[in-house]
Design brief:
Three copies of one chain form a homotrimer. The radius of gyration of chain A is 21 Å and the shape is elongated. Chain A is 82% helix and 0% strand. By secondary structure, chain A is mostly helical. The first copy, chain A, has a single domain, classed as Membrane associated eicosanoid/glutathione metabolism-like domain (Four Helix Bundle (Hemerythrin (Met), subunit A), Up-down Bundle). The longest helix of chain A has 40 residues. Chains A and B meet through helix 1, helix 2 and helix 4 of A and helix 4 and helix 6 of B.
């Protein structure tokens, strides 16, 4: 009886613990959007004509000047795209992984390492830190997703 | 007894209500793909050589003519990308949010505002309506996701 | 009693069966990232300055040479983007679909066709096979997602 309650508390805590890390990672990804907008507004590097107009480009010449490709905007956009490419698989496989009932410490370890690697990846991308810091942090995050996928597939195959 | 049934019905209805809005938003996002293809086929603005060939580009000259960058294709693609960047976080956090057991009216309000803001965002992007209509609708959608994430994190922290 | 157990086993198997196909599709999508990096490293076609530096671009001239746009890199990136645009809606609607309790064979059929169509799509994109093989495989995958969304919305509307 006591064991049952304990394991339920553990299960709940495990889920709640992983939920907070998952939420933080997804919020970090969502935050990349406004960050790109900030990098667009500061040097006035827009890609849609209506944006250039809204920021005061009245005549043809100013319009062309405001519709430029800015290296730092492209840099933030690539960082955002890398987030999408890595956090989306983590969301799907992380959900299936928590459904397999992993033990608390292992699940938290996976989610903590992933959250840490993605936050470090963004810092390494945006500063930018010299390579291979960015590449390695991306690989660590992928490793976490593969480790969770391995457990999911192993359990599914045994049933 | 009666209360229990009622709350279950409510919970079910809440979940079903949010499910329909979630499905509509995701279908809207999926629909952007064929829309981009439509914008590609009409002015024959392809990006892959095999597509230009499939649409009748036999000689070298026609091939180069068909492999152009068309502003309206790029416009639809950016709209699609913005959908991915905002609807994906909504999917993840919206799932966690419904698991926290919010009450019916609040949950429906969140999902309705999000679905409405994203549909309006696509219209504002594709017409295009003058700014800041597109920017504001994007911000409203983000606000919904942040509001749901706030509830999820608040409940997780208290446990 | 026996029926109940059987249906539970069926439900479990159905879920597990779909989980394995879902995991495979998501892993395939995640794998596109390292594949893009491979296509970048071989002809040395980088997009970030720190990557060119890490691969031995010391002077200004080599840097510019390494910062080129390579058609095959762009090709893999488009394939990856198409995965994101189609597998993300599948993840969301596929989850809701399994929650509606479809019968085993129908659910497995949906997930198998989707997994097959996406794997064939990547092959058709990367070889590349002549059109319309790529376009048709993409349409088949979309059809599966629409079919699942139809069931979800039908059940939600009836309640």
């Amino acid at each position: 009886m006591f064991e049952l309650i304990d394991s339920e508390v553990f299960l709940a805590y495990s889920t709640y613990g992983t939920i907070s890390y998952g939420t933080i990672v997804v919020l970090k990804m969502l935050f990349m959007g406004p960050l790109t907008d900030y990098f667009r507004v500061t040097p006035k590097a827009f890609v849609s004509l209506e944006d250039a107009r809204a920021h005061g480009a009245k005549d043809e010449e100013t319009k062309n000047k405001y519709m430029q490709i800015d290296p730092s905007v492209e840099h933030v956009k690539r960082c955002h795209q890398n987030d999408l490419e890595n956090i989306v698989p983590f969301m799907g496989i992380g959900l299936l992984y928590t459904l397999t009932g992993p033990d608390l410490s292992t699940a938290l370890l996976h989610f903590r390492i992933f959250a840490g690697s993605r936050i470090f990846h963004s810092i390494a991308y945006l500063v930018p830190l010299p390579q291979p810091s960015r590449g390695l942090s991306c690989l660590v995050g992928m490793g976490v997703t593969f480790s969770m996928a391995y457990r999911v597939l192993k359990i599914v195959m045994h049933l």
